[in-house]
Amino acid sequence: MAQETWDAVDDYFEGALIGPDPVLAEALERSDKAGLPQIAVTASQGKLLHLMVKMAGARRILEVGTLGGYSAIWLARGLPEGGSLLSLEVEPKHAEVARTNLEAAGLADKTQVRVGRGVDSLAALAEEGAEPFDFVFIDADKPSNAQYVAGALLLSHPGTVIVIDNVVREGKVIETDGSNAAVEGVRKVVDLIAREPRLTGTSIQTVGAKGYDGFIVALVTG
User: Fold this and answer.
1) C-alpha triplet 164, 168, 171: angle, nearest 5°
2) Fewest CB within 10 A of the end CB: N or C in the chain?
3) Which residue blocks in the chain are alpha helix, DSSP H?
């Protein structure tokens, strides 16, 4: 009963506040046809990311975990003229689908998808002296969450917003037996944020079409 209600509520808000979007619908359809896992953010979550980018005044966005580019479209749509998004993806097939979707969305000129292990790509960006990013969205393999945040911190400045998705894990985040690598990855990133003096953050629990989960929002303060 709960999931049916969550789905219906998501449908209501998406219908009232977002509406149909053929570009995004086609992006999901291409991803499905290519056999990508159906784990993209929902439309409501995508719109939230879009609004957060605008509220932060972000001009440079870093995304860790591209999948089919659905969230990247939402993020990039929030950029001002001259803004850019760099998305990191480990799977070449996913990156190919994402590039097609971003091009179809008219965003090819302000987006780039880099293929490789996220940790390696973050290290390479730091070595290249990449300009700091204003907004970071992390939605990749959960065991590496702490490494992603540590890498993103090297590419940030005071005021950078970092969002980490899928941190509640249907409530399993409170389990401490170490049997779930994804949960351990979330707990490690929570510990990192808690002890890192340059970060302050909070968590939000969510329910909806993707079930019971949530995200962390952190701000780089120094």
Assistant:
1) 175
2) N
3) 2-17, 22-33, 43-56, 70-77, 92-104, 118-128, 145-153, 181-195
Residue 134: DSSP 8-state: S
What residue type is assigned to position 152 of the chain?
A
Q: Which residues pair with 215 in a beta bridge?
A: 165, 204
Question: Side chain identity at 169, as an amino acid letter?
Answer: R
Q: Dump pLDDT digits (tens) for 72-126.
A: 999 999 999 999 999 999 999 999 999 999 999 999 999 999 999 999 999 999 9
Say which residue the tokens 């939402």 belong to. 74
State the CB neighbour count (10 A cutoff) for residue 25. Answer: 11
Assess whether pLDDT exceeds 70 at residue 1: no
pLDDT in tens, 159-170: 999 999 999 999
Given its phi and psi angles, is residue 84 left (phi above 0), alpha (psi -120 to 50 degrees) or beta?
Answer: beta
Question: Please, what is the Cα angle at 20 between 19 and 23, to 5 degrees?
Answer: 130
